[in-house]
Specification:
Blueprint lengths: L7 H21 L6 E6 L5 H9 L4 E8 L2 H10 L1 H4 L5 E5 L13 E4 L9 H5 L5 E7 L13 H7 L4 E11 L4 E10 L1
Parallel strand pairs: 1-2, 1-4, 2-3, 4-5
Antiparallel strand pairs: 5-7, 6-7
Length: 186
Amino acid sequence: MNFDSFSSGQYLSKLWLAQTIERILPDYHQRPDGYTIWILAGWYGITNLILRTRNNLKIRQVRSFDLDPSCESIADKINETWVWQGWQFKAFTKDINLVDYEEKPDVVINTSVEHIDNDQWFHNIPKGTLVFLQSSDLEHDDHSNVFKNTQEMMDRYSLSEFLYDGVKYFDFGDCSYCRFMIAGIK
Protein backbone atom coordinates (compact mmCIF):
# COMPACT_ATOMS: atom_id res chain seq x y z
CA MET A 1 0.00 0.00 0.00
CA ASN A 2 1.28 3.45 -0.91
CA PHE A 3 0.68 5.62 2.14
CA ASP A 4 1.21 8.78 0.05
CA SER A 5 -2.51 8.46 -0.71
CA PHE A 6 -3.08 9.67 2.87
CA SER A 7 -0.56 12.54 2.72
CA SER A 8 -1.62 16.09 3.53
CA GLY A 9 -1.44 17.15 -0.12
CA GLN A 10 -3.55 14.22 -1.30
CA TYR A 11 -6.14 14.57 1.44
CA LEU A 12 -6.45 18.36 1.18
CA SER A 13 -6.76 18.16 -2.62
CA LYS A 14 -9.62 15.70 -2.34
CA LEU A 15 -11.28 17.72 0.40
CA TRP A 16 -11.13 20.78 -1.90
CA LEU A 17 -12.67 18.63 -4.64
CA ALA A 18 -15.49 17.50 -2.33
CA GLN A 19 -16.25 21.09 -1.27
CA THR A 20 -16.35 22.18 -4.92
CA ILE A 21 -18.59 19.31 -6.00
CA GLU A 22 -20.97 20.06 -3.13
CA ARG A 23 -21.30 23.67 -4.37
CA ILE A 24 -21.63 22.95 -8.10
CA LEU A 25 -23.51 19.67 -8.44
CA PRO A 26 -26.89 20.59 -6.87
CA ASP A 27 -27.10 23.76 -9.01
CA TYR A 28 -26.25 21.89 -12.20
CA HIS A 29 -28.26 18.74 -11.73
CA GLN A 30 -30.92 17.69 -9.22
CA ARG A 31 -31.04 13.95 -8.58
CA PRO A 32 -33.49 13.12 -5.74
CA ASP A 33 -32.51 9.42 -5.74
CA GLY A 34 -28.80 10.28 -5.44
CA TYR A 35 -25.91 10.89 -7.81
CA THR A 36 -23.84 8.31 -9.66
CA ILE A 37 -20.15 9.24 -9.59
CA TRP A 38 -17.29 7.55 -11.43
CA ILE A 39 -13.74 8.17 -10.30
CA LEU A 40 -10.99 7.53 -12.85
CA ALA A 41 -7.58 6.55 -11.46
CA GLY A 42 -9.30 6.35 -8.08
CA TRP A 43 -6.40 4.75 -6.22
CA TYR A 44 -7.63 3.65 -2.75
CA GLY A 45 -11.07 5.27 -2.86
CA ILE A 46 -10.28 8.19 -0.54
CA THR A 47 -12.46 10.53 -2.62
CA ASN A 48 -15.53 8.40 -1.95
CA LEU A 49 -14.68 8.22 1.76
CA ILE A 50 -14.43 12.01 1.99
CA LEU A 51 -17.63 12.66 0.00
CA ARG A 52 -19.60 10.10 2.02
CA THR A 53 -18.41 11.13 5.47
CA ARG A 54 -19.03 14.81 4.75
CA ASN A 55 -22.59 13.71 3.94
CA ASN A 56 -23.50 16.89 2.04
CA LEU A 57 -24.68 15.14 -1.15
CA LYS A 58 -27.07 12.28 -1.69
CA ILE A 59 -24.93 9.70 -3.45
CA ARG A 60 -26.49 6.61 -4.95
CA GLN A 61 -23.41 4.92 -6.32
CA VAL A 62 -19.66 5.45 -6.76
CA ARG A 63 -17.47 3.41 -9.08
CA SER A 64 -13.69 3.73 -8.83
CA PHE A 65 -11.38 2.55 -11.63
CA ASP A 66 -7.63 2.09 -11.31
CA LEU A 67 -5.04 0.23 -13.39
CA ASP A 68 -3.17 -1.03 -10.30
CA PRO A 69 -4.74 -4.35 -9.19
CA SER A 70 -3.63 -3.83 -5.58
CA CYS A 71 -5.97 -0.82 -5.30
CA GLU A 72 -9.24 -2.69 -5.77
CA SER A 73 -9.28 -4.72 -2.54
CA ILE A 74 -7.84 -1.86 -0.47
CA ALA A 75 -10.38 0.66 -1.82
CA ASP A 76 -13.21 -1.80 -1.17
CA LYS A 77 -11.95 -2.39 2.38
CA ILE A 78 -11.58 1.35 3.14
CA ASN A 79 -15.12 1.88 1.82
CA GLU A 80 -16.60 -1.35 3.18
CA THR A 81 -19.47 0.56 4.79
CA TRP A 82 -20.81 1.30 1.29
CA VAL A 83 -19.63 -1.89 -0.45
CA TRP A 84 -21.91 -4.18 1.56
CA GLN A 85 -24.87 -1.77 1.28
CA GLY A 86 -26.05 -2.71 -2.18
CA TRP A 87 -22.70 -1.96 -3.86
CA GLN A 88 -23.04 1.78 -3.23
CA PHE A 89 -19.25 1.78 -3.70
CA LYS A 90 -17.18 -0.61 -5.78
CA ALA A 91 -13.60 -0.41 -6.99
CA PHE A 92 -12.50 -2.06 -10.24
CA THR A 93 -9.13 -2.89 -11.75
CA LYS A 94 -9.42 -1.30 -15.16
CA ASP A 95 -7.45 0.80 -17.61
CA ILE A 96 -9.38 4.09 -17.58
CA ASN A 97 -8.87 4.35 -21.35
CA LEU A 98 -11.12 1.29 -21.67
CA VAL A 99 -13.95 2.26 -19.32
CA ASP A 100 -17.34 1.58 -20.93
CA TYR A 101 -19.86 4.41 -20.54
CA GLU A 102 -22.94 2.40 -21.50
CA GLU A 103 -24.38 3.36 -18.12
CA LYS A 104 -23.67 7.08 -18.05
CA PRO A 105 -22.68 8.55 -14.67
CA ASP A 106 -23.81 11.97 -13.48
CA VAL A 107 -20.22 12.95 -12.61
CA VAL A 108 -16.76 11.83 -13.71
CA ILE A 109 -13.75 12.72 -11.55
CA ASN A 110 -10.05 12.39 -12.32
CA THR A 111 -7.69 13.78 -9.68
CA SER A 112 -4.65 12.07 -11.24
CA VAL A 113 -4.38 13.86 -14.57
CA GLU A 114 -0.64 14.50 -14.15
CA HIS A 115 -0.03 10.73 -14.11
CA ILE A 116 -1.70 9.99 -17.45
CA ASP A 117 0.23 10.49 -20.67
CA ASN A 118 -2.69 10.30 -23.11
CA ASP A 119 -6.17 11.77 -23.39
CA GLN A 120 -8.19 8.76 -24.58
CA TRP A 121 -9.85 8.48 -21.16
CA PHE A 122 -11.11 12.07 -21.54
CA HIS A 123 -12.35 11.60 -25.11
CA ASN A 124 -14.37 8.55 -23.98
CA ILE A 125 -16.41 10.54 -21.44
CA PRO A 126 -19.90 11.12 -22.90
CA LYS A 127 -20.89 14.65 -23.91
CA GLY A 128 -23.11 16.33 -21.35
CA THR A 129 -21.33 14.73 -18.38
CA LEU A 130 -20.22 16.90 -15.47
CA VAL A 131 -16.43 16.51 -15.15
CA PHE A 132 -14.00 17.46 -12.34
CA LEU A 133 -10.27 17.29 -13.08
CA GLN A 134 -7.21 17.94 -10.93
CA SER A 135 -3.54 18.15 -11.82
CA SER A 136 -0.43 19.92 -10.57
CA ASP A 137 2.75 21.67 -11.61
CA LEU A 138 4.89 19.30 -9.52
CA GLU A 139 7.77 17.82 -11.49
CA HIS A 140 8.09 14.16 -10.46
CA ASP A 141 9.32 10.92 -12.05
CA ASP A 142 5.80 9.55 -12.47
CA HIS A 143 4.22 12.81 -13.66
CA SER A 144 3.99 12.83 -17.44
CA ASN A 145 1.22 15.42 -17.85
CA VAL A 146 2.22 18.47 -15.81
CA PHE A 147 0.48 21.84 -16.24
CA LYS A 148 1.60 25.38 -15.40
CA ASN A 149 -1.90 26.75 -14.73
CA THR A 150 -5.62 26.10 -15.09
CA GLN A 151 -5.70 27.74 -18.52
CA GLU A 152 -3.40 25.03 -19.87
CA MET A 153 -5.77 22.42 -18.46
CA MET A 154 -8.81 24.16 -19.96
CA ASP A 155 -7.05 24.33 -23.35
CA ARG A 156 -6.19 20.62 -23.25
CA TYR A 157 -9.51 19.35 -21.85
CA SER A 158 -12.06 21.29 -23.81
CA LEU A 159 -15.41 21.34 -22.10
CA SER A 160 -18.58 22.77 -23.62
CA GLU A 161 -19.09 24.84 -20.46
CA PHE A 162 -16.61 25.65 -17.72
CA LEU A 163 -18.14 25.94 -14.24
CA TYR A 164 -15.02 26.26 -12.09
CA ASP A 165 -11.28 26.70 -12.19
CA GLY A 166 -9.07 27.18 -9.19
CA VAL A 167 -5.60 26.83 -7.72
CA LYS A 168 -4.40 25.66 -4.30
CA TYR A 169 -0.82 26.28 -3.27
CA PHE A 170 0.82 23.69 -1.05
CA ASP A 171 4.07 24.47 0.79
CA PHE A 172 5.52 21.63 2.81
CA GLY A 173 8.94 23.22 3.36
CA ASP A 174 11.03 20.83 1.27
CA CYS A 175 8.32 20.55 -1.39
CA SER A 176 5.89 23.12 -2.73
CA TYR A 177 3.58 23.03 -5.71
CA CYS A 178 0.29 24.27 -7.12
CA ARG A 179 -2.72 22.00 -7.49
CA PHE A 180 -5.15 22.93 -10.25
CA MET A 181 -8.79 22.03 -10.65
CA ILE A 182 -11.24 22.59 -13.48
CA ALA A 183 -14.87 21.53 -13.67
CA GLY A 184 -17.52 21.76 -16.32
CA ILE A 185 -19.78 20.04 -18.79
CA LYS A 186 -18.08 17.88 -21.43
